[in-house]
Amino acid sequence: MSDWQKKHPMGTMLGDSLPGAPVLAPRGNTVTGVRTITLTDPNQADVLAGKRDGRFPRYDRPLTVEVWYPALPGNLAPFSIEGRAFRDAAPDAAVGPCPVVVISHGYPGSRILLVNLAENLSSKGYVVLSIGHTDNTYPDFPAQGSIESAVIHRSLDQRFVISQLKTLNSEGFLRGMLLPDAVGLIGFSMGGYGALRTVGARIGENVLKDVFAPVAEEVQEAPDWHGDKTVKAAVLFAPATFWFDPARSEDIDVPTLWFCGTADKTVGYDAVRQCCEGAVNSDRIFISYERCGHNVANNPAPAEALSAPWEIIKRWADPVWDTRRLNDLNCHFVTAFFDSLLKGDAEKAAYLTVPTPCGKDADGKAGTGWPGFPEAAPAGVILEHFPKHR
């Protein structure tokens, strides 16, 4: 154990699980490393340059991607944003090859806003790549063109990073560390919009004709697009669903795990639920956080932001829910979901079921509660299962 680790025992840092967390929330036993890489997607629409002769000019689109991976222990200083990952540590080849999880942030956002979840998964034997979506991060958010860029590029960025996994597995520091065909996708808010498109959801025809008319040429899917089948499971945190036609979601056939706060006024709880119910060819788990707003996924606010105005701190916080508790719940449920589907650990699927109601059922028999929780049920959490229709 390094001197730094001795000074920061488990439980003392944001991202460590709280007392009473569900059983799959704590970090795993694997040391985590973190590195920043840059990928370049050629010949993409340059939205910020404006149209020329009725069409966006093309450019080589840079993407900054944060990568968390199982690593060898060392005495390197951890990443400057509080975490337990070691910057530029050597990968631990003995742990690999690992399933891959790709994370897509909100609007605007940052590739590190879900760092707690990324580190948590990496410590359990995953390699996690979190995309910094160009034109949509806090440092490069433009005065005009950001929403058009998001609408066009979110899914394309995700598909491009996924397409690079085999190359990343054959060269560079991740060589031999990846299972490029065992991919999970996580999208929050606008990242969830992109994730839904990536796994096969289609934008409504009226939206294409009216709302998206200026960018329809870039947004319209090819007739032969039915989703990226490399993705084996998708997690959707409060996804922006209002542009989708629930009747055009038949191509979503991978299992999906949905999270949404019942008080979400940004994307609308009812709209998210309707989209979930329409994806009838996907085996779906829907988790509702009662009275929670939009921020169901982000890390807790850093200490220096706690005295900032609400307009700043609301990037991370919720008026009702403790964000650390939300992170514990998310880590628990997402671990169960990906372990069962990407690692083939069938026993973990039990943590996504509620065997009997808490309290007493109609016959007066006591319920058995939720698997993995220290109390009978996690207050304020509703879990529902919508099986696929075929």
Name some characteristics of this structure:
alpha/beta; 10-stranded mixed β-sheet; single chain
Structure description:
The protein is α/β, with parallel strands linked by helices and 390 residues long. It has one domain (3-351): Rossmann fold (3-Layer(aba) Sandwich), CATH 3.40.50.1820. 23% of the residues lie in helices and 20% in strands. It has a ten-stranded mixed beta sheet, sandwiched between helices. β8 (256-261), α8 (269-278) and β9 form a beta-alpha-beta unit. α2 (115-122) packs across α10 and α3 crosses α5. The chain is globular, with a radius of gyration of 20 Å. Mean pLDDT is 90; it is low at 75-80.
What's the SSE blueprint?
Elements: H1 3-7, E1 32-45, E2 58-70, E3 86-87, E4 98-104, H2 115-122, E5 127-132, H3 146-163, H4 165-170, E6 178-188, H5 190-198, H6 205-209, H7 216-219, E7 231-237, E8 256-261, H8 269-278, E9 284-289, H9 310-313, H10 323-342, E10 381-386
Parallel strand pairs: 1-3, 4-5, 4-6, 6-7, 7-8, 8-9
Antiparallel strand pairs: 1-2, 2-5, 9-10
